Amino acid sequence: MKYRSTRGSPKLLTFSEAVLVGLAEDGGLFIPTNIPVLPENWRKDWSNLTFNSLALEIFSLYIPSEEIPRKDLEQLINKSYSTFRSNEITPLKKIREKFYILELFHGPTFAFKDVALQFLVLGATSGDTGSAAIYGLRGKKNISVFILHPHGKISPVQEAQMTTVLDKNVHNLSVEGTFDDCQDIVKNLFADNPFNEKHHLGAVNSINWARILAQIVYYYHSYFQLIKSLNITMESNAAKEIQLQFCVPTGNFGDILAGYFAKQMGLPINNLLTSTNSNDILDRFFKNGRYEKLKSENGKFVKETLSPAMDIAISSNFERLLWYLAYNDSKVQEEDKIKEVSKIVRGWMEDVKTNQSLIVEKSMLDIALCDFKSEMVSDQETLNTIQKYYAPENRDQISYILDPHTAVGVAAADRQIISPNTIQICLATAHPAKFSQAVEKALENFKAFKFESILPKEFIGLLEKEKKVVFVEKADPSLVKKVIENELDTELN
Ligand SMILES: *Cc1c(COP(=O)(O)O)cnc(C)c1O
């Protein structure tokens, strides 16, 4: 198993190399040379595995043991998830008949990105686990971490979680701009060869392959939890007849792309429901085959919503799906197919750069619609959904407090029930206390609701703690480079 660029560079990389460099040298994203198939008896053999053991099995399909010995991989996984507050790591909660919430927020920062980042960051920095693996960094004690975030555009808790880390080697840059500006700056830093070589950049941003890989695990884990919750066996007809839809609040298309890989590997998923907030480039794509950056009334590409982690103008992982759509649509013979497909992808990415849009053939959109459905959810509907799930009308439904991102997915799920037999699993991507403003706004008229009752002890006093953050007054790559070099000077002297 090796990794190739979506844009056709003939260079194939190992897993470790792909994870370390993040982005391919031709600007493409890494995808595996093939999507591995599941072992024949996966249903039986995997059904009682813990999250960690399941992760080991799935990672092993993508990472050759000659590259990272199984023992080392196992240690890395165990260490990664030891910081989670739930034994299940990602527990599945039944809300009502045929409707479940998959809680992905039991990691250190109370959001789903922990599932992948705990693995990736530890992987990149733990030379001492003896892993021969993610390790260009091995032995180097001096790893500096730079985190860019858009100034004032993340929730107060998110901001405090990052900026109250006072370690010398952690640097928060608060950039006057949007998420997309921050992503563009990171891309720019990577494309700057002298800068990249001088500092040996490694990216843990959303396009890193290891993040997608780590996220595949919870699709499987939730499936096994579901079978248990239904009190049926893996081999039963009842299990075979399940119609399963995953509902995923989506921004950069990383979380749901992991579901796509899970499905291509053989997990019986009927639909992946992409749910966007009013930054709806993906929803529009799935409706008309046109992927187009549009300016809103205020002349900006990004709208600020109640679900800020999904406020993006373009979805950085979408290029990977585009590659597979072109691949599955191509009639070209196998030897030339990869070249042909990469050429199409390059053309599309050029189109986005020059015309702010790309259009796919109807046949390709049809291929996408075999796996995906989509919805867009407004802020008002997000608030209504939080209310509706806090105080359910249905007596058999439990009361549940949704964070605004999760609510976007849940609202879409309520619209898109494919058949009466459909079982839905909605991914809960953050703890409600992390995005407290939206939750408090939604529930302000419920007298019984006390925000303190859902506040994790880790959040108490967080906002008042000492902070370490550098303000960058303009979303300008050369300014950011200057700030980084200044920071490094201070850190290392
Ligand atoms: C990042 C994030 C999302 C969106 O996930 P993508 O992989 O970018 O689609 C949704 N909700 C929360 C809370 C997030 O942090």
UniProtKB/TrEMBL annotation:
Modified residues (N6-(pyridoxal phosphate)lysine): K113
Presence of the UniProt keyword Lyase in the record: yes
Reported cofactor(s): pyridoxal 5'-phosphate
Keyword Amino-acid biosynthesis set for record: yes
Annotated Pfam families: PALP, THR4_C, Thr_synth_N
Chain ranges of the Threonine synthase N-terminal domain: 2-81
Top-level taxon of origin: Eukaryota
E.C. number(s) listed in UniProt: 4.2.3.1
GO terms of molecular function: pyridoxal phosphate binding; threonine synthase activity
UniProt cross-references to Gene3D superfamilies, sorted A to Z: 3.40.50.1100, Threonine synthase, N-terminal domain
Start and end residues of each Tryptophan synthase beta chain-like PALP domain: 121-334
InterPro entries: Ser/Thr_deHydtase_PyrdxlP-BS, Thr_synth_N, Thr_synth_N_sf, Thr_synthase-like, Threonine_Synthase, TrpB-like_PALP, TrpB-like_PALP_sf
Keyword line: Amino-acid biosynthesis, Lyase, Pyridoxal phosphate, Threonine biosynthesis
GO terms of biological process kind: threonine biosynthetic process
Pathway membership, UniProt: Amino-acid biosynthesis; L-threonine biosynthesis; L-threonine from L-aspartate: step 5/5
Family: Belongs to the threonine synthase family.
Protein name listed in UniProt: threonine synthase
High-level lineage: Eukaryota, Fungi, Fungi incertae sedis, Mucoromycota, Glomeromycotina
